[in-house]
Amino acid sequence: MKRIAILTAGGDTPALNATIFGAVQKANELGIEVYGLIKGFGGMISPQLPHVRLNPLFSTIPELDPCQGGTLIGASRTYIDSNDKKQLQSVAARMERLKIDGLICIGGDGTINGMQPLSEYFPCVLAPKTIDNDLGLNYIDEPNEWVKDENDAIHDGYRHSSTRDAVSLGEIVNYVTPGYATAVFVVAQSIERIRTTAESHRRIAIVEVMGRDSGYIALGAAYGQPDMILIPEVELDYPKVIRRVRELYDMQKHVVIVVGEGVQDAEGQLGAKSKSVDPAGNILFSGAAERLAEILIKELGDDYFRKNQRHDEAKSAVFTRKVGHTQRGGRPILFDRFYGAQLGGEAVEILNRKQNNHLATLNWTEEFGFTTGQLSANKLRDQWGTIHAREVHSSLYSEQRFQPSELGRQYFAPIFKNAIGHEDMEAIKSHLFSPDNLLTRYQSFNVEMQKRIQYLD
Ligand code: F6P
Prior knowledge:
This protein is an alpha/beta fold. The chain has 2 domains: 3-139 and 332-389 and 425-452, Rossmann fold (3-Layer(aba) Sandwich), CATH 3.40.50.450; 180-323, Rossmann fold. The chain has helices spanning 16-30, 40-45, 85-97, 109-118, 180-200, 216-220, 238-252, 288-306, 314-317, 334-352, 406-416, 422-431, 436-439, 445-450, and strands spanning 3-9, 33-37, 51-53, 75-76, 102-107, 124-128, 146-148, 158-160, 204-209, 228-230, 255-260, 264-265, 268-269, 272-275, 283-286, 318-322, 358-365, 369-376, 397-398, 403-404. Helix 1 crosses helix 10. The chain is globular and about 75 Å long. 46% of the residues are buried. Bound molecules: 6-O-phosphono-beta-D-fructofuranose. Residues 11, 130-132, 210-212, 261, 284-285, 328 line the site of 6-O-phosphono-beta-D-fructofuranose.
């Protein structure tokens, strides 16, 4: 391979620049030119194919900083329609004009779907990223366990029941995705901060975190020591939830509850699920925490709070907060920087071996710790060709305690034991209250990158 292209698709994560950096460093070693395509698949559709050379003379451009969140080549949720042959052919022709021998897409499951039709024209490899940690398998034959069920509206007409009582950690395919550790870092800190205000004012805080149908971020929030964690994979049992809330509130005069945004009850998703207006038609989740607050307010009632003069009404005792996009942004912590970069490098190696429609994976075993590997993208698909978001396996969560199970705690240990580097703490110390921040406006990499963007004639 002489020249490859790289793009970032879907929602951003803090580890994207680190992954691009790892890919470019590996390409420098192998003497491969790397072009960054601007704004994901959206840029490919544009007749001018905006692009930047990321390693002129095989040296990485200075704007590419693995410590900076976001993506310096921009991202979009635009995907190429696999049925639109004309569009696919014109994309392929443009890539040929730019003399691109292969493509690396940094993304999640939507990106694999976007990459698949392109892989019929040139070799494509995915370097994974998603804060949701839902790209992967609890074990290799998991996709075969999905069945079609028209009545299951929650999983868009599919249903899954695991044939395993417990996962074996060494068998997990793609143990963790870059971006997840930083998201958990932000969420855990947010919970610690919300805790003290709930505690002081005798309130019940409901903190909603991202993750769509997957409860990994919610489960990882356990590091912030919330009292209860509700994940989308386990249907809410209201009497049980309310009993536990009362127990906790009676004892400690406040409660902190974390809910994954896709949490559901017997009726379906608690919050609203709507299609985004972007071309990918992504599903957006909203309102789970508010809905749960309404239920608690009604079930607990005003008298419950009045009896000990804690609050005049339930409405003022219960409050909701969304951690929101902060969990997706900012400086990546060491774990994400390091393994994001490793996966970027692995993707280049896979592409260089001319393996097509594959993804780089990050696996873990007791014996070897984390190692990168590769997987054919089709291994993630069920028999109908659908890729399902990886669910938190029931063996990782204790429904009784609303917390990670013993196995769940073991799952987290290798990720978070050394997830934060000393330099992460140093960066906060030296940067946040630097007097320079008051003097100088934020210097966006978009401004510098604009000077480098080139177009096809
Ligand atoms: O998939 C990543 C993710 O951050 C989800 O956790 C979340 O539901 C969604 O993207 C938010 O998307 P947007 O930024 O388009 O609102």
